[in-house]
Amino acid sequence: MSASVDLTITPLSTHTGVEIRGIDLSRPVDPALAARLNRAFVDHAVLVFRDQHLTAPEMLAAVRLFGEVFPQHNTRFALPDCPLIHYISNQDRFPDGRRYIPGEGWHTDHSNDAMPPKATVLHAVTLPDRGGDTEFANLQQAWAALDPATRQRIDGLQAVHVYQSSHSARKLMGLAPDARAAVPAAVVHPIVRTHPENGRKGLYINPIRIESIPGMEEPEALALLDTLLDHATQPAFVYRHRWQAGDLAMWDNRCLLHKANGDYDMAQTRYLYRVMLKGDAPV
Ligand code: SIN
Questions:
Q1: How far, in Å, is the centroid of ligand 1 from the Cα of 223?
Q2: What domains sit in the chain, N to C, each tagged with a CATH number?
Q3: What's the pTM?
Q4: What is the three-state SS of the chain?
């Protein structure tokens, strides 16, 4: 029997995200409902399913309603019993002992891949009492609000994306040795992309991955990227997700930046399951 009971879809902000209630993702979902959910994803960019209590295999089955799983580059965080699901935790440390907060700082996931994941999905397992929100900046809204001269200047520009940009303030955990060979050295993507499913244009920038803009001197490129980032992450374009127990949130990496906030009591655990879904080459 279908998982649908009494579905409600409620906006979470004026521009990004909807909350979905009345569905249990551990149960089968019929094709009409799956199509409705996929449409909501394309239209709203963030879906937050409340009150889910999924095991890792159940989460894997549920996300397949939206596409195929994208194997994450860094296998270091794979769950041993369900390796396509990874974890996000504030309890890991860099080799030098510093705490590692995954996802801090604005970024879009795995843009250093030739075909970056269209979506990332997190399911809250353990949350701190307060804080640890995830923020989302809508890059289509940002594009639409740019002045015509800047639009003309950047439309058609490309950027080189690498695993870890030498300009990034945020340092990533090193790749697991078995993962290094599979990760491209560098890929080139447009700075303005058109969403393959809703046809809207948006910025496609990533401060932790972009190394350079071909044909532009480094100081000019970095200044331009900083300006675009400041523009895109102004409060008018940001939805801030305050996690609740049982949330399963998925977002569209093709039109959003996101960042985790490491602003909570680190004596408390923040632990979520994470999986990504395959996407297309940005154009
Ligand atoms: C991520 O960047 O994938 C993680 C975001 C979060 O932990 O809130």
A1: 26
A2: 4-277 (3.60.130.10)
A3: 0.94
A4: CCCEEEEEEEECCCCCCEEEEEECCCCCCCHHHHHHHHHHHHHHCEEEECCCCCCHHHHHHHHCCCCCEECCCCHHHEECCEEEEEEEECCCECCCCCECCCCECCECCCCCCCCCCCEEEEEEEECCCCCCCEEEEEHHHHHHCCCHHHHHHHCCCEEEECCCCCCCCCCCCCCCHHHHHHCCCCEEEECEEECCCCCCEEECCCCCCEEECCCCCHHHHHHHHHHHHHHHCCHHHEEEECCCCCCEEEEECCCEEEEECCCCCCCCCCEEEEEEECCCCCC
